[in-house]
Amino acid sequence: MRKILIGIFFLILLTLVPSVVLAQTATPSSVGQQRKLEAQERQEERKAALEQRKEELKEQLEVRKATREAQVSERKRVRVRFFWERLKLRLLAAVDRLERLIGRMESRLAKIEEAGEDLDVSEIEEGLSEAKEMLADTQVLIDELDFSLENILTPNTPKDAFEEIRANIKEIKDELITIHRMLVQLIGQMKGLRVGQGGDGEEVSPTVSPSVTEAPSATPTETPTETPTLTPTPQP
């Protein structure tokens, strides 16, 4: 019996000794792996935080850039509006001068008809009628451009908007110049006409030919160089 107990004791001892040895040898390795994993996790966290910070800085820079560009664009749009308002006044003044010139020419023809002279003025009357219609259409072009200015500025960059506005202005300018040339030709025909025998009819003549000097640059400035100088004036 005693031998049996001693045998069992030795068997238990043989079983426990390897376990203790294994536990002693395995523990340092497990601790090292755990520390390594923790270090990797901390590194990943720092990396993720750094990436997040980079993204935040990038977004802040983009917002600042967009804000700065928006401010610059708005200043340029203000300059385009200023440019148009200045030029619109000049164009309207040119239209007014041509209207007054046509009125003087019509008054001249009316006096010729009242005098009962046997003169054919039908061609001149037709020319004046056509010039009046063209001038009315030009006035519509000015009004349309003035009305649609904000619609042109909003979707476009200031540079593109300025180019579109300048193209419309050129069309208006060309119409005014064409009308002026027509009136010059009609005035030339009227100069040979005389009312009565005393030749006391009034002479109507434009003194300055129209011109519009457009700025070559697509960047509007506070002092636009487009200055239409349509100044045909009747002389009594």
Let me know the largest β-sheet.
none
- Helix fraction bin: over 70%
Strand content: under 5%
Average pLDDT level:
74
Rg on CA atoms, Å: 46 Å
Count of distinct strands: 0
> What is the first-to-last residue Cα distance?
156 Å
Low-confidence stretches: 195-202, 211-236
Quick one: overall form?
A: rod-shaped
Structural class: mainly alpha
Oligomer: single chain
Order of helices and strands: HHHH
Number of domain modules:
1
How many individual helices? 4
Region (Disordered): 194-236
Keywords: Coiled coil, Signal
Protein name: DUF5667 domain-containing protein
Coiled coil: 33-70
Structure explained in plain terms:
Keywords: Coiled coil, Signal. It comes from Candidatus Woesebacteria bacterium RIFCSPHIGHO2_01_FULL_38_9. The protein has 236 residues and is mainly alpha-helical. The protein has four helices and no strands. Helix 1 packs parallel to helix 4 and helix 2 packs antiparallel against helix 4.
